[in-house]
Automatic annotation (TrEMBL):
<dbReference type="InterPro" id="IPR006313">
    <property type="entry name" value="EfeB/EfeN"/>
</dbReference>
<feature type="domain" description="Dyp-type peroxidase C-terminal">
    <location>
        <begin position="228"/>
        <end position="411"/>
    </location>
</feature>
<keyword id="KW-0456">Lyase</keyword>
<keyword id="KW-0575">Peroxidase</keyword>
<comment type="function">
    <text>Involved in the recovery of exogenous heme iron. Extracts iron from heme while preserving the protoporphyrin ring intact.</text>
</comment>
<dbReference type="InterPro" id="IPR048327">
    <property type="entry name" value="Dyp_perox_N"/>
</dbReference>
<dbReference type="Pfam" id="PF04261">
    <property type="entry name" value="Dyp_perox_N"/>
</dbReference>
<dbReference type="InterPro" id="IPR006311">
    <property type="entry name" value="TAT_signal"/>
</dbReference>
<dbReference type="InterPro" id="IPR048328">
    <property type="entry name" value="Dyp_perox_C"/>
</dbReference>
<dbReference type="InterPro" id="IPR006314">
    <property type="entry name" value="Dyp_peroxidase"/>
</dbReference>
<protein>
    <recommendedName>
        <fullName>Deferrochelatase</fullName>
        <ecNumber>1.11.1.-</ecNumber>
    </recommendedName>
</protein>
<feature type="domain" description="Dyp-type peroxidase N-terminal">
    <location>
        <begin position="56"/>
        <end position="216"/>
    </location>
</feature>
<keyword id="KW-0349">Heme</keyword>
<keyword id="KW-0732">Signal</keyword>
<keyword id="KW-0560">Oxidoreductase</keyword>
<comment type="similarity">
    <text>Belongs to the DyP-type peroxidase family.</text>
</comment>
<dbReference type="InterPro" id="IPR011008">
    <property type="entry name" value="Dimeric_a/b-barrel"/>
</dbReference>
Length: 423
């Protein structure tokens, strides 16, 4: 981004090498890599994360601390306009993730008579591990009447199903769905907000924001280099998550494989988002032992009940002296565990949220659940069906928003988001 005028962190001096490596190409959507290696991306919370690669950044990237998630409705019926938008978004995403202003002139160097190309609130801020991850929802491929919107109906992946109604769902349509989702994650909240805001600005006339969600405090680890964070129930969350180091498992559970098809999704993944309200006021009046029984883990250590270390394997058969199962039949970790879900796993990447209060003396708080997977028909849907039926945690949570998106494979340098889908 441009040199800040006031005293502070100078983007140019601190991140000059990264910035110099980025160049917009002939078509305006090329950028060159800055660094590589997922591990190095966890180490420095101010540095950049490589935008280009075999997979989109922001999936196995060690989960950043902040989220700004938005879905967009496409307001044009012109295929060419959508392609042009995706090219422009890609160019902007490559620049912003490298810590640069967008456009030719950025925030403050353009003509005084025109609105600045970059909105400017990230001037002086480092890249802060910003990642931008895109996904296409079912409504991008066909409208509610089944009409082909952009000549893509035949390219809708079979795995991109409309999610079924789950027991207890109380979904708000205004917080659900969307033609396109963009997940912005960063260690700096302003960097994440800036990214979505600039994409929304570029999209004026082609897309409209359907809804957006801010998240603070990651609720998962996606790398063994990270400590396990806590959710708003105060429990460690993300212990038994898929991690970037589990490369063989990621092929099996996370990334779409050539035999899965369609070709444009190979190397990609399916994202399910759920806005889950947590009635924390009721939870806070529940005893410690009841809370631990509901989750199936100790609140302090995060260890499975009956074990002492967070990463000890769970013994689902262990019983107390009274003959009770230590991890109850309806405990969350039993019902969600691959052993009881045909081996299915998820890469969870959710965030806490508190969006003010609800007018009834309660915080509008919860978990913005984000999970990536190879096939939602075999992973999220059966797991959530089982949780919706039997999880004792349901007394304290309510699913109020929902989305499903096909996130294509990575963007090679010189390409743009979704190029294979349109070719
Ligand atoms: C459909 C999938 C899941 C939803 C929805 C979900 C909601 C949810 N979870 C917690 C808190 C915890 N979840 C934990 C583990 C866990 N959860 C899921 C899936 C869903 N959770 C899975 C697959 C797992 C791992 C199970 C295993 O293999 O052991 C844990 C324990 C720590 C951990 O392993 O991550 C907690 C705590 C909340 C609060 C919540 C909705 C608000
Ligand atoms: Fe869970």
């Amino acid at each position: 981004m441009s040199e800040p005028k006031k005293k502070g962190i100078s983007r140019r001096s601190l991140f000059g090498a990264a910035g110099a490596a980025v160049a917009t190409g002939v078509a305006g959507y090329t950028a060159h890599s800055v660094i590589s290696g997922e591990e190095s991306q966890a180490a420095d919370s101010t540095g950049p994360v490589e935008f280009h690669g075999a997979h989109q950044a922001g999936i196995v990237t060690p989960a950043q601390d902040r989220l700004h998630f938005a879905t967009f409705d496409v307001t044009t019926d012109k295929r060419d306009a959508v392609i042009a938008l995706l090219k422009e978004w890609t160019a902007a995403a490559a620049l912003m993730t490298a810590g640069r202003d967008i456009g030719q002139y950025g925030a403050v160097n353009g003509p005084a008579e025109a609105p600045p190309e970059d909105t400017g609130e990230a001037v002086g801020l480092p890249p802060a591990r910003l990642t931008l991850t895109i996904g296409f929802g079912p409504s991008f491929f066909q409208d509610a009447k089944g009409n082909d919107r952009f000549g893509l109906k035949g390219k809708r992946p079979e795995a991109l199903v409309d999610l079924p109604h789950f027991i207890g769902d109380n979904l708000d349509p205004a917080r659900s769905g969307g033609d396109i989702a963009v997940q912005a994650c960063s260690d700096d909240p302003q960097v994440a907000v800036h990214a979505i805001r600039n994409l929304a600005r570029i999209g004026f006339g082609t897309t409209a924001v359907r809804y957006s969600q801010l998240g603070f405090g990651r609720t998962s680890s996606t790398s063994r280099a990270q400590t396990t964070p806590r959710n708003l129930f105060g429990f460690k969350d993300g212990t038994n998550n898929l991690k970037l180091e589990d490369t063989a498992k990621l092929e099996e559970q996370l990334w779409v494989q050539p035999e899965d098809g369609p070709e444009w999704m190979v190397g990609g993944s399916y994202l399910v988002s759920r806005r889950i309200r947590m009635t924390i006021e009721t939870w806070d009046r529940t005893s410690l032992s009841e809370q631990e029984t509901i989750v199936g883990r100790g609140k302090g250590t995060g260890a499975p009940l009956g074990k002492s270390d967070e990463f000890d394997p769970i013994d689902f058969t262990a019983k107390t002296a009274d003959g009770e199962l230590k991890v109850a039949k309806d405990a969350h970790i039993r019902l969600a565990h691959p052993q009881f879900n045909n081996g299915a796993e998820l890469l969870r990447r959710g965030y806490n949220f508190v969006d003010g209060s609800d007018g009834l003396g309660r915080l509008d708080a919860g978990l913005f659940f984000l999970a990536y997977q190879r096939d939602p028909r075999k992973q999220f849907i059966p797991i959530q069906n089982q949780l919706a039926r039997s999880d004792v945690m349901n007394e304290y949570i309510r699913h109020v928003g929902s989305g499903i998106f096909a996130c294509p494979g990575g963007v090679p340098a010189g390409s743009y988001w979704g190029e294979k889908l349109f070719s």
